[in-house]
Here is the input.
Amino acid sequence: MAKRDILIIPDKRLRLKSDPVKTVDKSVRALVDDMFETMYAAPGIGLAAIQIGVAQRVVTMDLAKKDEPPEPLVFINPEVVWSSDEKSIYDEGCLSIPEYYEEVARPKAVKVKFLDLDGKPQEIEADGLLATCLQHEIDHTNGVLFIDHISKLKRDMVMKKFKKAAKRGEYPAFEKDEEPSHHIG
Here is the structure.
């Protein structure tokens, strides 16, 4: 296992559409191990492989609270196959857009099909934070960021701030938030 660097906007790789995993093998399991180590260290509750520069449709997640035992989840080739008409609003953040948070409206419930670590097809119905996190991470596998769901004005402001900061080799100053549940992935 190895902690990896998380890509930060405006890194163009974050806009790549990830390739499906053809076979769940030793290299995919090693990637998952690295993703969990990276996600927990960040700290965050979700991470897509593209966020560490690997354009594969692999997502890790753990929604357990700090005082609870870890509940690691792995989704390989995740795909939303159904979503509710009812929306829910969550104050999202992203490890690739550090210290920036914004309310995002997404379907309240989803059904997602995926492969598990044994390569077996699975399906999960989710609502609440799990539904939000799944949608956020699946967006990453499609080159979509949570800021794509907010107004163009706010998105442009965030991108401009991060582009300037990248030129200076630093992160822009936003409100610091150490709560992992806000750092979706």
The domain at 12-174 is CATH 3.90.45.10 (Peptide Deformylase).
